[in-house]
Design a protein that fits this description.
Oligomer: single chain
Strand order of the largest sheet: 2-3-4-1-7-8-9
Helix content: 40-55%
Distance between the termini: 65 Å
Shape: globular
Number of strands: 21
Radius of gyration: 30 Å
Length: 652
């Protein structure tokens, strides 16, 4: 028998249906020479400290750093998982061949390799590598199965990531909790989590310490159009007023009118991060929410594999585009102008050099039916981006008008859309945005001006104040994680910085959610703010490597190099082991150690511990020392703020 192992039951059913494995068994489907089984995502995980040594069960300085001689894996403690694993083990022990049908990515490779190792699989293994779950894609994938050895570097990168996270997370968390938490609270430190928190804390510090300063701008209105003085901003009001006095009694003269025609390209196709950014901006979806929705659309076969970090398509997709467009039956008004025409093949869309494991997120061409409201919104974004990629460029005309008043120069720029091209695909969206945000000054269409014309004008000196940086939203935080904290707008530069981004597209949403769960950050409307606990934690960390987005980005680059076979996994892990040792020495020699300031309420019963969120209730951190104080969620609600908790405790 040939055993196929997928990452989810739903995916296994799709594969089994194509292979003709129709007979249902306990934990697998069988038929036509195949047995198709599944995991539930991770069935296995790295062993915990106490699995290596009983001494490591106790949180103690003397046991740090914990560095196992050889890392091992174990089954996650769950009866359902254990039952399914025993089924998988029996199937693999008798298999003549195994086909790894896990998600086609680093995490998917790691999940299935661990299961095969635990099951003691000894037969040849092949890999199914597909970007969508349509019947055609599955059939094509089985016709081009690859040998497992081709993905060894991918596995080593995933394993290095997991071990690296274990080394830093386990050691730094225990170290900082013992040194600074004083047993009141577990201080969670993570290779990606901590620098992400530092981004938010540092941004808040910039806001808190920002001192607004006034500046003045010289403007004048001529023929209903506002021109700006080219002198720029005046920090001294009297200087601005002297220029205002100079232009008050002289006429405005147009000195030059230039018109430059240009093109605007359609927006890039989506990778996961840009889709999460757009969904947060447009619908206020969280990153985690968007990931769940696009994963669901993938499993419903209407979009391609979502956990990608490229906005390009490979050349082999180009011949399939007409069929895909034809399948977008709810967008016939937009696809009709493309039917029967030779579609453009732009390098901004198709570029093999920018595609590694997977291409950008696009529709599969399977009609989208029975979608939830959230799924419909996300699918609409993906479908319109795809359609727009094959529309003509938007043709624009940019007009720049220069003027002069008594030797003082003024300027205004306006834009006119000559041919909308791809903008027609987003016509309603653009209209809604213009209505809600107002027309941008540089996008205004200007009346006809002629060089040499002159007339009266209305000058003014406008006072404005500098504004503080804006708090991160999930959208801007995702972009900051993608570019290791560097604020860039240029798409090409963003692509270059992705190599050094924090985390992977598939994990960034979970990192943000973890920060919420651990009470390190909070949200007001769309804005993200650090809690006192979050600020205090970053304040205690003196090791720049633990909280620097840029340095963490360098680790990510090395992990990508491991994936490409350009860097040895053992060298990466040696670096992190040495770093773990260095961090322990540095923290233990810190003579300025003090208890972390925290906004988590103190237990009213023992007066020593603090209330921590558990699975069903808030409990005292001193439970090991006999304090049994609890506040159940049922009575008080799981989502209480710390301020509400303090009020309840005060009443008790």
């Amino acid at each position: 028998m040939i055993v196929c192992i997928a990452e989810k039951p739903s995916v296994a059913r799709e594969i089994a249906d194509v292979l003709g494995a129709k007979v249902k068994r306990d934990g697998y489907l069988e038929g036509n020479g195949y047995q198709v089984t599944w995991t539930f995502g991770h069935l296995c995980t790295l062993k915990e400290p106490h699995d290596y040594s009983p001494q490591w069960k106790i949180w103690s300085y003397s046991q740090l750093p914990m560095i196992p001689e050889r890392f091992g894996i174990k089954l996650i403690e769950n009866e359902t998982y254990r039952h399914q694993f025993e089924i998988i083990r029996n199937l693999m022990q008798q298999a003549e061949r195994i086909i790894n049908c896990g998600d086609a990515g680093q995490e998917g490779e790691l999940i299935q390799r661990w299961v095969m190792q635990m099951a003691g699989a000894r037969c040849p293994v092949q890999r199914l590598w597909i970007s969508s779950l349509t019947e055609d894609a599955i059939r094509e994938g089985f016709q081009h199965l690859k040998d497992q050895s081709e993905f060894q570097a991918l596995y080593e990168a995933g394993l290095s990531r997991a071990i690296g996270d274990w080394l830093l997370g386990m050691n730094a968390t225990r170290l900082y909790t013992l040194r600074y938490g004083r047993n009141h609270q577990v201080l969670s430190i993570g290779r990606v989590q901590t620098p992400t928190l530092a981004l938010i804390v540092n941004r808040q510090a910039e806001i808190d310490h920002f001192v607004p300063e006034p500046y003045w701008e010289l403007k004048t209105i001529y023929r209903g159009v506002t021109f700006s003085g080219t002198k720029g901003k005046f920090k001294d009001q009297s200087e601005g007023e002297s220029f205002l006095a100079q232009v008050k009694d002289s006429p405005f003269t147009v000195t030059d009118v230039t018109e430059k025609k240009g093109k605007e390209f359609a927006p890039r196709l989506f990778d996961l991060t840009s889709l999460q950014v757009e969904c947060n901006r447009k619908y206020a979806f969280t990153a985690e929410q968007t990931l769940k929705v696009i994963q669901s659309l993938y499993e419903k076969k209407v979009t391609t594999y979502p956990r990608v970090d490229t906005t390009y398509l490979s050349d082999d997709i180009y011949p399939k585009v007409p069929k895909t467009l034809e399948g977008l039956v709810d967008y016939t008004a937009l696809t009709a102008p493309l039917k029967g025409k030779k579609l453009p093949k732009s390098k901004k869309v198709f570029d093999n050099s920018k595609v590694t494991d997977h291409h950008a997120i696009i529709p599969t061409g399977v009609p989208a039916r029975n979608l939830t409201e959230e799924e419909r919104k996300v699918y609409d974004l993906v479908a319109r981006r795809f359609i727009a990629a094959f529309y003509p460029n938007c043709e624009i005309s940019t007009t720049t008008v220069l003027g002069k008043v008594d030797q003082i120069d003024f300027k205004v720029t306006g834009k006119q859309i000559l041919s909308p091209g791809w903008r027609e695909v987003f016509a309603q969206d653009r209209a809604d945005e213009d209505e809600s945000e107002g027309e941008k000054e540089e996008d205004k269409v200007l009346p006809a001006f002629v060089a040499g014309e002159s007339g009266p004008h209305e000058p003014s000196l406008k006072e404005t104040w500098t504004t503080a940086p804006k708090p991160y939203t999930e959208a801007t935080l995702l972009r900051a994680m993608e570019t290791a904290g560097k604020l860039v707008e240029d798409e090409e530069l963003k692509d270059a910085l992705k190599e050094n981004g924090i985390g992977r597209p598939s994990t960034r949403a979970a990192i943000i959610e973890t920060l919420f769960k651990r009470n390190y950050i909070r949200k007001e409307r769309k804005s993200l703010y650090p809690t006192e606990t979050g600020k205090g934690l970053i304040g205690t960390i003196n090791e720049e490597l633990l909280k620097s987005a840029e340095l963490t980005g360098l680790w990510e680059k090395k992990l990508r190099m491991i994936e490409r076979g350009e860097y040895a996994a053992r060298d990466f892990l040696s670096e992190l082991k040495e770093l773990s040792r260095t961090i322990v020495i540095n923290v233990l020699s810190d003579e300025s150690a003090s208890t972390l300031n925290t906004d988590i309420p103190i237990c009213p019963k023992c007066g020593k511990g603090r209330l921590l969120r558990g699975k069903t209730a808030y409990g005292c951190s001193e439970y090991r020392n006999g304090c049994d104080f609890r506040l159940s969620y049922e009575e008080y609600g799981k989502g209480l703020s710390d301020r509400d908790l303090k009020k309840i405790i005060a009443e008790l």
